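Retro notes - structure team

What went well: the batch runner handled both jobs without manual restarts.
What didn't: labels got mixed up in the shared folder, which is why I'm recording both outputs here explicitly, each with its sequence directly above its C-alpha cells.

Job 1
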Amino acid sequence: AICDVFTQYLEVLSDVLLDDIFAQLYWCVQQDNEQLARSGTNCLENVVILNGEKFTLEIWDKTCNCTLDIFKTTIPHALLTWRPISGETAPSTPSPVRENQLDTISQKSVDIHDSIQPRSADNRQQAPLASVSTVNEEISKIKPTAKLPEQKLFAALLIKCVVQLELIQTIDNTVFFPATSRKEDAENLAAAQRDAVDFDVRVDTQDQGMYRFLTSQQLFKLLDCLLESHRFAKAFNSNNEQRTALWKAGFKGKSKPNLLKQETSSLACGLRILFRMYTDESRASAWEEVQQRLLNVCSEALSYFLTLTSESHREAWT
C-alpha cells in the first residue's frame, strides 16, 4: 500500500520518501520470514516498473545499489560452509530404509526452489492465506532429523535461496518486462532447434521494460549481481560432498538439495542483457567491454556444460 501511494504521488514524494522506501524494502528482505522477504522484492519490482520512466540518473543509481545490497546480503554462503557439529554423526535414517535404497535416494537431487509457491500472474505476491506451498511448509520438512539450532539456520538459508531467485526474476522483469523475455526465449529456442542460425528472431522489444532508461554502467552492475549469484549456485551444485552432508542432516526433505533454477536463470538473464547491449547502436561506446564479458561468460558456460555428467543437470541447461 505504501508503494502504491508512492507511485501515485511520485513527483511530490520521491525526494522525501524514496530512500526510506528502499531502506524499508531492504529491511523486509533481511527478515527470516518468507512472506516479508518475497513482498520486499516484489514491491521493489513494482515501484521500479511503475515509476522507472520518471527516475533521474541518481534515482537509478540508488535503485541499482539497493538491488546490489539485497543480492549481496542474501547469498546463502553458509550452504557451502555448514558442517555438522564435530563428534556428532549424521542422524541415523529410519530403519525401513536399507543401505542400498539409501544410496539410490541420495543420487536423486531436488531443487531447493521446487514446490515453493510461484508468483501470481499480475506479479504481486499472493496473500499469506492463499499460499499453497510456502517455505514454511518446506521448513516443516527439515524438522524430523535436524537439531533446533540447525532448523533455524536451515530455515533462514531456505529463505535466502528464495530471495535470490526472486531477485533474478525481478531484474529480468524490470529490464525487459515479463512477457518479452519469455517470448524471446521460446522463439530463440525454436530457431536453434531448426538449426536456423541466421533466422531473425523478431520480438517487439521496443519500449518494453526499463532497459532504455539504464546506463551501461548500471546494467553492468546488475550483471555483476547475476553472475555472482550464478557462480555461487554453480559452486554449490558442484559440491557433491557438501550437498550430501546437508541432506543427511535433514535439510530440505528426501533428496540432495541443488540450486539448478538459480544457476540457469541467472545466467540466462545475464546473457540476455549482454546480447541486447551488443546489438544496441546507442551503446557502441560500451561494446568493447560487452564483447569481452560475452566471450568470458560464454566460454565459462560452455566449458562448464561440457563437464556435466547428470542428465537432469544438462536438461536444465539446454
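Job 2
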Amino acid sequence: MLHLKVQFLDDSQKIFVVDQKSCGKGLFNLTCSHLNLAEKEYFGLEFCSQAGNHVWLEPLKPITKQVKNPKEVLFKFMVKFFPVDPGHLREELTRYLFTLQIKKDLALGQLPCSDKSAALLVSHLLQSELGDFHEETDQQHLATHRYLPNQEYLDNKIMHYHRRHSGKTPAESDVQLLDVARKLEMYGIRPHPASDGEGTQINLAVTHMGVLVLRGNTKINTFNWSKIRKLSFKRKHFLIKLHANVSALCKDTLEFTMASRDTCKAFWKTCVEYHAFFRLSEEPKSKPKALLAGADGAAHTFPPCCSGRTQRQLLEHGRKAKMKSLPFER
C-alpha cells in the first residue's frame, strides 16, 4: 500500500492510503470524497517531478509510473481549470475552494493586479473570514496575516473597502471576490517560460480560449482554438500550426523553445486537457485528434491525462439539477 500526503488549499494536510497499483484517479477521488466535492473536474493534484517541474498527476496512469518516491512527494490539491465566469460554478463549496486558490495566488504574488484590485480582493476575504468591519479587529488581523507581498502599504485601502461590505455573508463575499478576480488580466493564467524564434524571452500560457503568448504580464498574442490547426512538441520545441486563413497573415507554424523536453511535454499535456475540458461536448475517448496530434513527430491519441466530464457536461448537469428543483405548476 502507498501512504500519500496531500496538501489542500487551506494548507491542511492528510495522508491517504491507496493500493500500490493505483492510478492517479484513485488518489484524486479520495481527496474529493474527503472534501465532499461534487464539481471535482475543475481541480487536480499537482506535484514536483524529479526534474523539478510542477506537473499534474495523470488520472489514468499508475502513480508509481509518474512518481519515483511517492511517499516522499507532497501532492497539492489545486484549481486546474479556470472558467471564464466562476458564477457558473454550481456548488458553494466549489466557489469557496476557488476563493482559497485566489487567496493563495495573491499571497504568492502569482496573481499580479493593481493595488486597487488587490485591496478589494483582500477586503472580500476579510468580510468572509471576520464578518463586518471593526477597525481594531481589522488592524490586528492584518498585522498577523499576510494576504499580499506589499500588504503594509495597502492596509488602509483594504479597510476602506471592507467598511462597504457590511452585512455580506461568507458565501456572498466569495461570489463577489470571484467576480472581481475573473476580470483581472492574469486571472487563471499560469505562465510557462519559453523563448520565441528570435530568442526573445516570453511566457506561454493556456486558457479556456486558447494559447497565449506573454511578455512579462502583458499578452502580446492570443491563438484561439479556432485558429489552431495542430499543437505538437518535438524535443524541447513547442509548435503551433495555424489554419490557412490565419497563416496568410503570419507564418504557418510558430515555434517556441522551452527549458527541456519534459517541460515542453508537460505544457503540451496541459493544452490537451484545456482543449478537451473547454471545447469538447463530452468526455474525450482515446481516439486520434488532429488538433492535438504530433508529439515528437508521431501521432497521438488523447493522453491519459484527459479524464472526467467536460465543462459543458458540468453546466448541463447543473441546469438539469436546477430544473428538477423548480416548483412547476400544472
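One thing worth noting from job 2: The radius of gyration is 21 Å.
We'll revisit the folder naming next retro.
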